[in-house]
Amino acid sequence: MNTLPKEEAARAILARNDRGGYTVPTDRLYPFQWNWDSAFVAMGFALFDVDRAYRELERLIEGQWDDGMIPHIVFHAPSDTYFPGPDVWGTRHRIPTSGITQPPVFGMALRHVHEAALATGEAAATERTRVLFQAALRSHRWWLTARDPEGLGLVSILHPWESGSDNSPAWDEALARVPTTTTTTIRRKDTGHVDASMRPRDEDYQRFIHLVDTYRDCGWDPKRQWAAAPFKVADVQMTGILARATADLMHLAETFGTDEEKVELTRMHGRLLDGLSSRWRPELSRFVNLDLISGHDVETPTQAGFIPLVALTFDDGQRSAIVAEIERWLDGMVVGVPSAPSFSPSFEPKRYWRGPVWAVINWLISDGLRLNGSADLARRIEQSTVRAIETSGFCEYFDPTTGEGLGGDTFSWTAAAYMALGRRT
Ligand code: GLC
């Protein structure tokens, strides 16, 4: 039974972006399978087609490397509408993939899909979950060894694209140290699909590709990359998602894990919660990243500072501080939560990750608020997101000052977020 005015349209977008068991984020601009997009999309499918939800995760895992990393892009089929393609990455997996990763929403999605399968009595659920649980566990092991070799309890990104918040002002200082020289010839395709004023600037694009060149020259070996990386930021958004996904795997391990695996996951979880807690800054009422090259806190305000809500249980003081801070960011906005607040000097309401609102970020923040007992604020965020989508369409992101839809349209994860958040409001 359809309860949402745009339920049919949302499902039609997922159908239209289906390329055979996996969903592209949107046609042309992003013509392959993206890691965290697919995890959100799987949670969307779980609402009405559990088999297809599993398929989405299974197809993503086809791209998983032998060392456990789940790449940020799996190039299942060729397309010439995107740069950088497989030839630039030069990776050596069985099927072409990129060489970097993205936020591990996968574990969260797996628990979600598994629970939907139990509720609908999907016969093959147990076996499918068992296989995917092992894949997720291998990827979490990769995270902790490859991206926290120093045992900080925080995982680092070596490329801004790994964060999922590609062009965030949180990377400005660290990225400015990265040279603009490249050995790869840059042929941007994104600005052919979307207005250049909304996309990253050319100079930053050269730095993005410089990093790809550097890591490809390391043969994509995690140890060599860690040593060579000119960009290394311990990210609270990534760590928050990883910690939450680890808790979800602990839950699944009750059914699917061995005793050793349960102990291992509990240790991982404890280490991540300790690391994350150390990044809370009471004077800012949010969490901050750590730049491992400079050794400094990154205090630039971005949405990432609130994402640890999905993993941590706050005391009352912390909770009211973070709630008041989010409310300050929402003040005067048509739709929130902005990826940078309007009072910040780096705020640009239409440019990629420098102000606009992403529906999936709101999904995480409202989830975290609900977990921490702040359902009213969660509902306010969910309702404004659903309204923006109903008014402006299933766009990639939204201008917080007007609610205008921007970037690519007919976006898969926006459709998934609409169905998930719409059911809660
Ligand atoms: C952009 C976003 C990233 C997303 C991808 C596909 O690169 O910054 O988060 O995964 O598009 O939608």
TrEMBL record:
Keywords: Glycosidase, Hydrolase
Pfam families, A to Z: MGH1-like_GH
GO MF annotations, alphabetized: Glc3Man9GlcNAc2 oligosaccharide glucosidase activity
InterPro entries linked: 6-hairpin_glycosidase_sf, 6hp_glycosidase-like_sf, Glycoside_hydrolase_63, MGH1-like_GH
GO biological process, one term: oligosaccharide metabolic process
Domain Mannosylglycerate hydrolase MGH1-like glycoside hydrolase, residue spans: 30-414
Family stated for the protein in its record: Belongs to the glycosyl hydrolase 63 family.
Name the record gives this protein: Neutral trehalase
Organism: Microvirga tunisiensis
High-level lineage: Bacteria, Pseudomonadati, Pseudomonadota, Alphaproteobacteria, Hyphomicrobiales
